[in-house]
Specification:
The complex is a heterotrimer of chains A (about 80), B (about 350) and C (about 400). With about 80 residues, chain A is mainly alpha-helical. Helices cover about 50% and strands about 0% of the residues of chain A. Classes of the chains: A mainly alpha (about 80), B alpha/beta (about 350), C alpha/beta (about 400).
Chain lengths: ~80, ~350, ~400
C-alpha cells in the first residue's frame, strides 16, 4: 500500500502540475480537496483520467470521485479494491 | 465627446516593456522571421495555485493587467474587457493534439477549459472578485479596438473605471505552420519596414493592458479621445477621407497631430495602402512606426497604444520609431493608424491631458 | 439617436430546421432535432446523441451558392442564418445607411483545423486552413455575403456569446454608432468541443432533461441564428415592421469558478435583476422565461435558485428549449432569441421536453406541453464559462 501511495504522489504532482509541491509534503491521510492540497472540481476530473490512464479504472459518474478522492489513502485503497495495483 | 483617461498601463512584448522605465533605448531584434515575448517571473503577479493551470497567454494577460491596476492604484473596476485574435492558442493546441494523438481518449479538461477565448478576462474577474460587465472581443485586427469602443460607450452609460487589454500568444508549431504557408520574412536590414517590396511579416505576441477612467485624476497619463475601425476600405484616398472626418469630429486637422504611428507590417501586400498614405501623413504630421519593434499580431494596436502613452509621457519620439526626418516640437496629439492583413484598419486618437 | 431598439428580422438554422419556418414547425409539433450523430467524425458517435444540422457541408455550400474552398461549416451556417434575417427584415444594405455585423463564436474554424492540423506539417494542400481558424473569419464572410457592411466585430464569451452580441448591437444603435445591425452567434459541431465537454463529464448519453431531478447533463448541438436590430428612427423612416422590442439586457459575472456556476446563482441573479431594472418591468410583469437550462446538474440548480431569488414564489411559466436544439454554445442565445420572438408572435410557449420530476431543492416545474397563451414579455437567460451571465428581455411589438 505504501509503495502505491508513493507512486500516486508522483503521478498526482505531474498530472495536476503541482510544481510547488514536494511528495514528502503530502500527508496520505490529509484531505485532497478544499483544505490540504486545496484541489477543486477540475482536479477531480483530472484524477478520474489519471485512474483510467494509469490503472485502467473507468469512472462514469463524477459524483463517485467524492468518496474515492478523499485522501491519498482512500484513492490507493480504491485502486487495490479494483484489483488494479 | 466622452474621453477615456489612461491611469495605468502594463505591457509584455518582445521588448523590455515590462520595466516601466524602458523607453526604446535598447531594441531586441526579431528571431529571424518572428518575435517571442519577453516574459517576467510570474510568481510576483499570480498565486501559485492559479499559476499551475495557466497557459502563457493567460499568464501574460493577468500579469500585464495586474501591473496596470497597481499603477492606477485601484482595487476594483466596473468592467473588464479583453481583446484577442486567437485566444489561448497554446491550450487550444494542447487539447487538439491530445485528441489527435490519443484518438480522443485519456483527455483531461484543463487545457480545454483554459482554451476558451474569455479565459483571461474571467481569470482577472475571479482574482478581483469583479461581478461586473465582462466582455471578450475576438475579431482579428479589431479585437483590441473593440475593447476601447465598448469602454467609451460604457462611460456614457455610467461606468467609471474599466480595465481593457489585448492579448496574443503563438506556439512553436504555429510559427512552423505559418512559415510553411510563406507568411513570414526576415526584416530586411537595408529596406525599412515602411518601404517593403516583398510579402511576409514577423509574427509576434504580447499583451498590453490599460486602466481607463471616465474622469481625469492625478494618475492620468493621457486620454483616448476617439477610435474608429474601417472594414475593407477600397483605396488609400478612402482611408484619408475617413481620417480627415474622424479628426474633424474631434475638432482637429491632420497638422494638429504631432506624431502619427503607422502599422506597417513589412508585408507589401498588406502595407500597400499605408505606403500610399505615407506622403500625405509626412506632409502634415510626423510619421512613425512600431511593428519592427513589437512584430505583427492581431492586437499589435495595443502595443501601439502603450507606445503612444509613453511618447506623450516622455515628450519625445525615439529615433528607432521615426519615419520622418523632422522631430515633433511637442507631443500633444498622437494618432495610431493600424492595419491588419490590409483588411482591418483603425484610427485611435490619444492626447496629453 | 434612437432610444428604443427593435428586432425586425429573424434567421436561424439548427437541428430543428434549416430556416425559421421549419424551426417553428418543429417547435410547435414538439419535435426534437437531437438524435444519432451522422456528420461529426468521432469515435463516440454511437455512444452519444447530438443536435446536428441535417445537411452535409456540400449541401450547405449549395444553399449559400458559393463553392469557395475556404468556407467551412461555421461560415456556411452563419451566412445562411444572417441572410435569412436580412431578407426577413426587408432592409437593403446598399441604401447608404450604416450597417454592422456583430457575430459570436467559440469554435470558429476549429472544425476544419482539426481535420488537417497534422497533415499541414507535411503537405501544403491545406495550409489555407490557417486563414480561417480564427473567430473573425465567419463574421467577415457574413459581412461580405450581405455586402456593403460598415462595421464588424466578434464576441466570444463561451455559452453566453450571442446574448452579448445582441446586447452590443442594441447599445451601438442607442449610441448612434450604427443605423442597424445584424447580431447573433454561430457554432458548428467539432471534435474539439465534443471532446471538451466530454472531459468535463457533463454530456448526457440520452436525451437531456433540463430541470429534471435526474438530469445527467447536456446534449451538444450546432447552429447559427441572427436577428436584425434597428432603432425606432430608421425603422419609422423606412416604415419597416418591428417583430419585438428589446427592452432589457445585462451582463454580469459570477466570479466563482472557471467553469461551474455558483450554487446560489449569484451572477445569474445579478444579470436578471439588472435586465429587469433597465426594462422598468417588475418581476410579476414577466410572462415567460426561456431558461439557459442546459440539463447539467450544476447549471439547472444554480439557475433555479437565481430564478427563485428574483421571482420568489411567483415564478413565471418557464421552459428550456435546449432539449429541441441541443446546446449550441455561442449560438444558443440568438437561437433562443429567435424562439422567444416566435413565442411572442404566436402566443405559444414551447415545451421543456423530457421532464418528469422536479428538482427536490427547488420544486420548480417547467411547461412540458405546448401552451397557447398571450405573451407580452419574455426573459431569456444565457450563462457561460468564465462566469459570464447575460439576460435579455423581449417585449411584444
Amino acid at each position: 500500500m505504501d509503495a502505491l501511495i508513493e507512486k500516486l504522489k508522483g503521478q498526482i504532482i505531474e498530472q495536476l502540475n503541482l510544481a510547488e509541491v514536494k511528495p514528502e509534503e503530502i500527508n496520505p491521510d490529509s484531505p485532497l480537496f478544499g483544505e490540504g492540497l486545496g484541489l477543486d472540481s477540475i482536479d477531480a476530473l483530472e484524477l478520474i483520467v489519471l485512474l483510467e490512464k494509469h490503472y485502467g479504472i473507468k469512472i462514469q459518474d463524477p459524483k463517485d470521485g467524492k468518496t474515492i478522492f478523499q485522501s491519498l489513502r482512500t484513492m490507493a485503497e480504491y485502486i487495490k479494491s479494483q484489483g488494479k495495483s | 465627446m466622452t474621453k477615456a483617461y489612461i491611469n495605468g498601463i502594463g505591457c509584455i512584448s518582445p521588448q523590455n516593456s515590462i520595466d516601466s522605465e524602458w523607453f526604446f533605448d535598447t531594441i531586441n531584434p526579431a528571431k529571424g522571421d518572428y518575435f517571442d515575448a519577453i516574459e517576467p517571473s510570474y510568481k510576483e503577479f499570480i498565486a501559485p495555485n492559479l499559476l499551475r493551470r495557466m497557459g502563457r497567454a493567460i499568464k501574460m494577460g493577468v500579469a500585464a493587467g495586474n501591473i496596470a491596476i497597481q499603477q492606477a492604484g485601484i482595487e476594483k473596476v466596473d468592467a473588464i474587457i479583453t481583446g484577442t485574435g486567437l485566444g489561448c492558442f497554446e491550450d487550444s493546441e494542447r487539447f487538439l493534439l491530445a485528441i489527435l494523438n490519443n484518438d480522443e481518449q485519456f483527455l483531461t479538461p484543463t487545457s480545454f477549459i483554459q482554451s476558451t477565448h474569455n479565459t483571461v478576462g474571467s481569470q482577472i474577474a475571479l482574482i478581483m472578485k469583479c461581478h461586473d460587465y465582462n466582455f471578450t472581443y475576438v475579431h482579428r485586427g479589431f479585437s483590441f479596438e473593440s475593447t476601447i469602443q465598448d469602454a467609451l460607450m460604457l462611460f456614457e452609460e455610467g461606468k467609471e473605471t474599466i480595465l481593457v487589454g489585448g492579448i496574443e500568444e503563438h506556439t512553436p508549431n504555429f510559427v512552423i505552420l505559418n512559415r510553411r504557408a510563406h507568411k513570414f520574412q526576415e526584416l530586411q536590414s537595408n529596406t525599412p519596414i515602411w518601404k517593403s517590396t516583398t510579402p511576409g511579416i514577423q509574427m509576434s505576441e504580447g499583451t498590453a493592458f490599460f486602466v481607463l477612467n471616465k474622469n481625469k485624476t492625478d494618475k492620468s497619463l493621457a486620454s483616448v479621445d476617439g477610435i474608429q475601425t474601417l472594414y475593407k476600405p477600397k483605396t488609400s484616398a478612402d482611408i484619408l477621407n475617413k481620417l480627415r472626418s474622424f479628426l474633424k469630429l474631434h475638432g482637429l486637422i491632420l497638422s494638429d497631430i504631432d506624431v502619427t504611428l503607422m502599422g506597417f507590417s513589412d508585408d507589401v501586400n498588406f502595407d500597400q495602402k499605408l505606403q500610399e498614405l505615407l506622403p500625405s501623413i509626412e506632409k502634415e504630421s510626423v510619421a512613425a512606426c512600431y511593428k519592427h519593434v513589437c512584430g505583427e499580431y492581431h492586437t499589435a494596436s495595443a502595443f501601439a497604444m502603450w507606445t503612444a502613452v509613453k511618447l506623450i509621457e516622455k515628450q519625445t519620439l525615439p529615433k528607432v520609431l521615426a519615419i520622418s526626418d523632422k522631430a515633433p516640437s511637442k507631443i500633444k496629439h498622437v494618432l495610431i493608424i493600424n492595419q491588419y492583413l490590409g483588411i482591418n484598419y483603425s484610427f485611435t486618437l490619444l492626447s496629453q491631458c | 439617436m434612437s432610444r428604443r431598439v427593435y428586432i425586425t428580422g429573424l434567421g436561424m438554422i439548427s437541428a430543428i430546421g434549416n430556416n425559421v419556418p421549419e424551426s417553428f414547425l418543429s417547435l410547435s409539433q414538439s419535435k426534437t432535432g437531437i438524435g444519432k450523430i451522422n456528420h461529426l467524425t468521432t469515435r463516440y458517435k454511437d455512444e452519444f446523441l447530438a443536435g446536428e444540422i441535417k445537411l452535409s457541408n456540400e449541401a450547405l455550400a449549395d444553399l449559400v451558392k458559393d463553392n469557395n474552398p475556404a468556407l467551412n461549416r461555421n461560415s456556411y451556417i452563419a451566412m445562411l442564418a444572417a441572410k435569412e434575417a436580412v431578407i426577413n427584415s426587408g432592409i437593403d444594405t446598399n441604401d447608404g445607411l450604416r450597417t454592422g455585423v456583430i457575430s459570436s463564436t467559440t469554435v470558429a474554424g476549429m472544425g476544419k483545423t482539426e481535420l488537417y492540423y497534422k497533415e499541414m506539417f507535411e503537405k501544403d494542400d491545406h495550409l489555407n486552413v490557417l486563414d480561417t481558424h480564427d473567430c473573425g473569419d465567419s463574421t467577415e464572410r457574413i459581412a461580405d455575403y450581405l455586402g456593403n457592411v460598415d462595421y464588424v466585430t466578434t464576441i466570444s464569451t463561451a455559452c453566453s456569446s450571442a446574448a452579448n452580441a445582441i446586447m452590443l448591437g442594441c447599445r451601438m444603435i442607442k449610441h448612434g454608432q450604427l443605423d442597424r445591425v445584424v447580431v447573433g452567434g454561430v457554432d458548428a459541431l467539432s471534435k474539439f468541443t465534443f471532446n471538451g465537454f466530454n472531459t468535463l463529464m457533463i454530456l448526457d448519453r440520452e436525451w437531456c432533461k433540463p430541470f429534471d431531478e435526474n438530469r445527467k447533463g447536456l446534449n451538444l448541438g450546432e447552429g447559427a441564428a441572427f436577428v436584425v436590430i434597428e432603432g425606432e428612427n430608421t425603422l419609422n423612416l423606412r416604415k419597416g415592421k418591428a417583430l419585438a422590442e428589446v427592452v432589457g439586457y445585462a451582463n454580469a459575472n459570477d466570479a466563482y469558478h472557471q467553469t461551474a456556476s455558483s450554487p446560489e446563482g449569484y451572477g445569474a441573479t445579478l444579470a436578471i435583476q439588472q435586465a429587469l431594472t433597465m426594462s422598468g418591468l417588475t418581476p410579476s410583469q414577466i410572462d415567460y422565461i426561456n431558461m439557459h437550462g442546459t440539463g447539467t446538474p450544476n447549471n439547472d440548480l444554480s439557475e433555479s435558485f437565481a430564478t427563485k431569488a428574483i421571482f420568489g414564489n411567483q415564478v413565471p411559466k418557464f421552459s428550456s428549449t435546449k432539449a429541441f436544439t441541443g446546446h449550441t454554445l455561442a449560438a444558443a442565445a440568438s437561437i433562443e432569441a429567435v424562439i422567444s420572438v416566435l413565442s411572442l408572435q404566436n402566443s405559444m410557449i414551447f415545451p421543456n421536453l423530457n421532464f418528469t420530476t422536479a428538482i427536490a431543492e427547488t420544486g420548480l416545474v417547467p411547461e412540458t406541453t405546448l401552451v397557447n397563451t398571450p405573451l407580452n414579455t419574455i426573459l431569456s437567460n444565457s450563462f457561460g464559462f468564465g462566469g459570464n451571465c447575460s439576460s435579455l428581455i423581449f417585449k411584444k411589438a
